[in-house]
């Protein structure tokens, strides 16, 4: 039995018209003899009646509802959308059944709001597939060993889909969304951004971590571990979208494509702290950030000091914490992280030179930089972010 997992995001389920498109994709794949597992998100976005954000706002302020109850409220969104879709499928004569995360065998720890999948028992879903049913699974949720509903963290339906796909040894996992796949850059910034036919797991993970919101990076990691291909595609077109696999193109083609895409994360603050004779400065700084739940990024530690970024919204708190520790940190607010992502850049000389060239030509100052085998990051001022993304997109000829 060849199994296909499809995952539909909130906008793909938000209206009757959208759900009819979903029906079309389900019928097409059934006609190709696939056994189908359909993982759904809650319908719509903030403000829509059954969207996750809307439901959570019904529970009063975030503090008033304990984490367990907050999860119990949040899972309702997916339960509603799963049943609405099931109704549509059945009215069209497509045999289908709804399973909650727990019923679909997804066991998690009890980390409400951010639960981790411990194991998946594929049998309950398998039994339904063997009876020829389309199995609709509520995304974003699992069940703890104590029998409580848990959620997998925001954007967790992607993770549900790839985890189920891995457990069932699916042939492929299709992530249906409202864009035509992975683009070389954000089209709101770069007019000639192009859809990519193929990307590697590493590239899409880096793009997603660096601000491209197409798929949750955790979901990609699970697919990569099991080596199951993913497709990111649009519910609203018949295009095939972007195929994500371990080795999308041959070695020579990878080398031709030095960079795959440009991503960006706006609104970050660069903080620098100098040791100035303070003992254990680095340890104190990062321990205190962790203790206050401030996430740090772009970290650069030298014997004389520490340089890192936090989100703009955390900057005041971070500076206050550092001040209380007796440091006099310097801060550059309103920065943006711009990343050049591409597995093809590994071991190729001159990539950083090109980046510096592109930015220098536009008079853009690099405040900080870092690199890994598939990404080079630069920190620039927020007002130069768009120009930086465009210059890099051009320099690496991603529009061609
Ligand atoms: N509905 C959940 C959220 O908004 C999960 C998801 O859509 O992936 O975070
Ligand atoms: Mg999502």
Automatic annotation (TrEMBL):
Binding positions (ATP): 7-10, 177-178, 188, 213-214
Stretches assigned to the ACT domain: 340-400
BP GO annotations: diaminopimelate biosynthetic process; homoserine biosynthetic process; lysine biosynthetic process via diaminopimelate
GO CC term (a single one): cytosol
DNA-binding keyword on record: no
SUPFAM superfamilies: ACT-like (SSF55021), Carbamate kinase-like (SSF53633)
An example molecular function term from Gene Ontology annotations: ATP binding
Any one Pfam family match given in the protein's UniProt record, by short name: ACT_7
Keyword Nucleotide-binding appears in the UniProt entry: yes
Function: Catalyzes the phosphorylation of the beta-carboxyl group of aspartic acid with ATP to yield 4-phospho-L-aspartate, which is involved in the branched biosynthetic pathway leading to the biosynthesis of amino acids threonine, isoleucine and methionine.
Protein name: Aspartokinase
Organism: Paenibacillus darwinianus
Organism phylogeny: Bacteria, Bacillati, Bacillota, Bacilli, Bacillales
């Amino acid at each position: 039995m060849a199994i296909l997992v499809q995952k539909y995001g909130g906008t793909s389920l938000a209206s009757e018209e959208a759900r009819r498109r979903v029906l079309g994709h389900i019928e097409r794949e059934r006609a190709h003899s696939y056994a189908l597992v359909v993982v759904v998100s809650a319908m719509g976005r903030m403000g829509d009646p059954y969207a996750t954000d809307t439901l959570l706002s019904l529970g009063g302020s975030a503090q008033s509802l304990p984490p367990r109850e907050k999860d119990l409220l949040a899972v309702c969104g997916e339960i509603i959308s799963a049943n609405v879709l099931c109704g549509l499928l059945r009215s069209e004569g497509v045999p289908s059944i709804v399973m909650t995360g727990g019923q679909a065998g997804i066991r998690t720890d009890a980390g409400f709001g951010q639960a981790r999948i411990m194991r998946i028992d594929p049998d309950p879903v398998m039994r339904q597939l063997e009876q020829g049913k389309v199995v609709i699974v509520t995304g974003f949720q699992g069940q703890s060993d104590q029998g409580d509903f848990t959620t997998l963290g925001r954007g967790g339906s992607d993770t549900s889909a790839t985890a189920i796909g891995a457990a069932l040894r699916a042939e492929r996992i299709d992530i249906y969304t409202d864009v035509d796949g992975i683009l070389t850059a954000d089209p709101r910034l770069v007019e000639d951004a192009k859809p990519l036919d193929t990307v590697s797991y590493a590239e899409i993970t880096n793009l997603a971590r660096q601000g491209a919101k197409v798929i949750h990076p955790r979901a990609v990691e699970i697919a990569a571990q099991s080596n199951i291909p993913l497709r990111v595609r649009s519910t609203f077109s018949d295009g095939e979208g972007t195929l994500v696999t371990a080795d999308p193109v041959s070695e020579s083609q990878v080398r031709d494509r030095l960079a795959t895409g440009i991503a960006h994360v706006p609104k970050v603050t660069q903080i620098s702290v100098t040791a100035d004779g303070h003992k254990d400065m680095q340890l104190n700084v990062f321990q205190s950030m962790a203790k206050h739940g401030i996430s740090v990024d772009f970290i650069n530690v030298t014997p004389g000091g520490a340089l890192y970024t936090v989100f703009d919204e955390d900057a005041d708190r971070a500076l206050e914490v550092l001040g209380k520790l007796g440091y006099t940190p310097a801060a550059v607010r309103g920065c943006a992280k711009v990343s050049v992502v591409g597995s093809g850049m590994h071991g190729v000389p001159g990539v950083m030179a090109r980046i510096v060239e592109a930015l220098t030509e536009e008079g853009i100052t690099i405040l900080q930089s870092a690199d890994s085998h598939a990404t080079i990051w630069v920190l620039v001022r927020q007002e130069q972010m768009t120009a930086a993304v465009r210059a890099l997109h051009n320099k690496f000829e991603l529009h061609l």
